[in-house]
């Protein structure tokens, strides 16, 4: 019976190691995606790019609740929140620039 307990313990360790490895792998790709989103948020604003920013914000905010439960790293969740704020600011800034351009043309 003791041998079964050792095998079960070894299986649990392997599962935990696999989950940690998966989490780290996902984190690498997610950070690349977040870096791209951050660049989108800080680049020169233009009305043509507004829909890209809105799509990115919509996609990221839509998956965030699931991401929060899947990713065990608080740093990643904090980075997602920061990028969402940056995309929101980029959207507002783009709208403000559009409003100012319309006012200048009037």
What's the topology here?
Elements: H1 2-42, H2 50-70, H3 74-105
Helix pairs in contact: 1-2, 1-3, 2-3
Pfam families: Exo70_C
GO molecular function: phosphatidylinositol-4,5-bisphosphate binding
Protein name: Exocyst subunit Exo70 family protein
Summarize this, please?
The protein has three helices and no strands.
Residues in β-strands, percent: under 5%
| Distance separating the two termini | 85 Å
The secondary-structure class comes to mainly alpha
User: What's the main sheet like?
Assistant: none
Radius of gyration, in Å, reads: 21 Å
Total count of strands: 0
Q: Could you estimate the helical fraction of the residues in percent?
A: over 70%
Poorly predicted regions: none
Order of helices and strands: HHH
**Mean pLDDT, all residues:** 80
Counting DSSP H or I runs of 4 or more residues, the number of helices is 3
**What is the total domain count?**
1
Fold and architecture overview:
- The protein has one domain (31-105).
- Helices cover 89% and strands 0% of the residues.
- It has helices at residues 2-42, 50-70, 74-105.
- It is mostly helical.
- The protein has 3 helices and no strands.
- The chain is rod-shaped and about 85 Å long.
Keywords for this structure?
mainly alpha, single chain, 3 helices, about 110 residues, rod-shaped
């Amino acid at each position: 019976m003791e041998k079964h307990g050792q095998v079960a313990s070894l299986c649990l360790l392997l599962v935990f190691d696999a989950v940690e490895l998966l989490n780290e792998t996902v984190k690498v790709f997610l950070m690349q995606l977040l870096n791209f989103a951050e660049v989108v948020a800080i680049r020169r604003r233009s009305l043509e790019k507004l829909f890209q920013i809105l799509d990115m914000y919509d996609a990221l905010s839509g998956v965030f609740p699931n991401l929060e439960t899947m990713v065990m790293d608080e740093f990643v969740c904090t980075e997602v929140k920061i990028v969402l704020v940056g995309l929101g600011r980029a959207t507002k800034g783009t709208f403000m620039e559009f409003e100012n351009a319309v006012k200048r043309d009037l």
